[in-house]
Amino acid sequence: GDIAKAQGQAIINTAAYTAVDKAETEQDLANLINETAVAELARITGENDILFIDFGPVFEEWEADFGRTYVIGNDPLKIKLSQDIEKAWWEGKEYFESRKQITGAELYAYTHELAKKYEWEFGGEIAGHLIGHFPHESLEKEIKTNYIHPENHVDMRAINQMGVSRSWILEIHFVDSEKEIGGFFEQLLTF
User: What is the pTM of this model?
Assistant: First the structure.
């Protein structure tokens, strides 16, 4: 069917070319999926819509994340949302860096405080995750210490079983459930 004629409040693009190590040899395919398809979705996005871009690149079997929220148009509340989630991300990073020890549960709680500070609701069941060679789409089956989650009571700076420091992605998800809008900002917190 014609996606431009679809009814509803969301367009969800689940396709992405994430094999970064092959992107140079399969450049046409990578551009078709990650650039042309996303541009078409942006073209049919309505005035004053919110557009999420969420990349989950895989580098030699290690999954990462990078996401942004963009506002198409001039809706002041949506613009505020987009600006607030980015500011909150940087405040979350500053909070993390100001502590010698911090658990995933502590950082998760702080992201909820940030949502309240900016007059939003926190919209995610996690506030980030480890960079690793595991997909993070099935949280209920996952070990919570892989996430910035209320059940993660392990120091985020603790080294892994191989004696290597762990790298984290911080995700800020803010929503207004009454107005049915939301957005997120995510990127590398540590490396």
Answer: 0.75
The rounded distance, in Å, linking the Cα atoms of 55 and 186 is 10
Which residues in the chain show pLDDT less than 50? Answer: 1-8
Hey, what are 94's tokens?
A: 């500053």
Tally of CA atoms within 13 A in the half-sphere of 33 that contains its CB: 14
What does the block give as tokens for 21?
Answer: 């190590």
Could you report the per-residue pLDDT of 156-173, keeping only the tens digit for each?
Answer: 999 888 888 888 999 999
Exposed, middle or buried, 169 (CB in 10 Å: 0-12/13-18/19+)?
buried
